[in-house]
């Protein structure tokens, strides 16, 4: 007989609606698992009392995920709950208001069990916050869970919650999804509101779902895809639900593919290339036309992206008097950002948008794009981090994830799917992207791929 945590999030929601289990029972089940099994660095704060209180009033009616346990990334302000942004400089910060993502999850009846680990201000692609255990993949607890949504991915992969919210400004949902053998979806620019802070003036970052199945991810996107009146840009509303999109066939599609790294001369691991080739063959077997294309985003776009990334880091300062608590990488990036003039920043934004436009024009004839997610399988903890030489740290990150940020630049939706494992059992994700605002088509295609090569029954050690 299946344990509660073996059920998908949608199966748990259906069981609540049918009266077969209560939200309170699920909450207690997962709280017990967190207490006994969080050896993966998933949670920084567990909100057991708040979760129990919400579970008592949760139930059917608010949507298919109503009453289902989840978690919130520690970058998202949550009223009355310590929110550290992954930084020792904010170790005692408690927001008075929740952001739009948290409010949307609460309105859908989801029950958060706490805050998941993230690196400082969500900047690195590994999750090793100072003073706390690193987030690791449960497939090999000596290796990184990725970042910046590393705690969220570790929690889902270890069965501590059925699905979780992440955020992605350069790959921060898809990277940990690949490391942890999960589905990680970065929605289109403007699909999910950045209310009320709107802290990303470039438009790189968005919230999105991390789940074990495409259908669960689609249902979570239905929750998150809320338009707020003050949003500076927005994707057109989906006529139906994203869950419905994941339950229909995509039709015959034209799919571009490339494997050459976008942002640096990274070495592509043979297992990664094999995963990409196998995915190509799978897509062809499903009736799609797969074509090789040149890399659509030139290397000359990288310096402009780095300008934007540095300024975004500089926009997250430490509270006065606590600057010494920031990590070396954060200080280095912040110093780079502060050294730039306003015209230099403005010119970089314009250049990034022109490069994005050129890439979108090149890919306009294609319904989807196939690349690897990461250049190598999940690396050992500490392999990327270099506090003594943050510039080397930054270059190592670029070599680890040389494709994901391309779709943040273009605003395209992109999903990492856990299609491959190495001979020693490490997960390897493969990434599909679609035209801007075509999240529904991307989910239809991803669900078709999952049905042809299912992964849900894979279980990491300690499950």
Characterization of this structure:
By secondary structure, the protein is of the alpha/beta class. It has one domain (4-452): Amidase signature (AS) domain (Amidase signature (AS) enzymes), CATH 3.90.1300. 36% of the residues lie in helices and 13% in strands. It is built from 15 helices and eleven strands. It has helices spanning 9-17, 23-37, 48-57, 100-107, 150-157, 174-180, 214-224, 242-245, 270-285, 302-314, 328-338, 342-363, 390-400, 404-410, 439-452; strands spanning 43-46, 69-73, 111-116, 163-168, 183-186, 206-211, 254-257, 289-292, 368-372, 414-421, 427-434. It has an eight-stranded mixed beta sheet, with helices on both faces. Strands 1-3-2 form a three-stranded mixed beta sheet. Strand 2, helix 4 (100-107) and strand 3 (111-116) form a beta-alpha-beta unit. The longest helix has 22 residues, at 342-363. The protein is globular, with a radius of gyration of 20 Å.
């Amino acid at each position: 007989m299946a344990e509660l945590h073996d059920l998908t999030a949608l199966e748990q929601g259906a069981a609540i609606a049918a009266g077969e289990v209560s939200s309170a029972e699920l909450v207690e089940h997962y709280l017990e698992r967190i207490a006994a099994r969080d050896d993966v660095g998933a949670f920084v704060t567990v909100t057991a009392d708040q979760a129990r209180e919400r579970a008592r009033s949760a139930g059917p009616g608010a949507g298919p995920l109503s009453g289902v346990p989840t978690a919130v990334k520690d970058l998202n302000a949550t009223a009355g709950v310590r929110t550290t942004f992954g930084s020792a400089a904010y170790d005692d910060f408690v927001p008075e208001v929740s952001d739009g993502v948290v409010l949307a999850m609460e309105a859908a009846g989801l029950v958060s069990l706490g805050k998941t680990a993230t690196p400082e201000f969500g900047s690195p692609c590994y999750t090793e916050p100072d003073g706390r255990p690193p987030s690791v993949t449960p497939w090999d607890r000596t290796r990184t869970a990725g970042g910046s949504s590393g705690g969220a991915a570790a929690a889902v992969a270890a069965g501590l919650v059925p699905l979780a919210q992440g955020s992605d400004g350069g790959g921060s949902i898809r990277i940990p999804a690949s490391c942890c053998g999960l589905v990680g979806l970065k929605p289109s620019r403007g699909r999910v509101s950045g209310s009320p802070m709107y802290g990303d003036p470039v438009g790189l970052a968005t919230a999105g779902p991390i789940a074990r199945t495409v259908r669960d991810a689609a249902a979570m996107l239905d929750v998150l895809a809320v338009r707020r009146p003050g949003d500076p840009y927005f994707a057109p509303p989906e006529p139906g639900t994203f869950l419905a999109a994941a339950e229909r066939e995509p039709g015959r599609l034209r799919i571009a593919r490339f494997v050459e790294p976008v942002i640096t001369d990274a070495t592509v691991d043979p297992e990664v290339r094999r995963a990409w080739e196998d995915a190509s063959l799978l897509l062809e077997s499903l009736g799609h036309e797969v074509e090789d294309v040149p890399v659509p985003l030139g290397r000359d776009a990288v310096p402009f992206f780095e300008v934007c990334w540095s300024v975004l880091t500089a926009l997250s300062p430490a509270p006065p008097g606590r600057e010494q608590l920031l990590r070396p990488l954060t200080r280095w990036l912040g110093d780079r950002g502060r050294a730039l003039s306003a015209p230099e920043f403005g010119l970089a934004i314009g250049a990034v948008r022109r490069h994005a436009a050129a890439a979108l024009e090149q890919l306009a004839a294609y319904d989807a794009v196939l690349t690897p997610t990461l250049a190598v399988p999940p690396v050992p903890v500490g392999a990327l981090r270099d506090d003594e030489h943050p510039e080397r740290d930054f270059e190592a990150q670029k070599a680890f994830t040389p494709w994901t940020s391309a779709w943040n630049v273009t605003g395209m939706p992109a999903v990492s799917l856990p299609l491959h494992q190495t001979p020693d059992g490490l997960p390897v994700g493969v990434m599909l992207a679609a035209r801007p605002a075509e999240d529904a088509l991307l989910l239809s295609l991803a669900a078709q791929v999952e049905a042809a090569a299912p992964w849900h029954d894979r279980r990491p050690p300690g499950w």
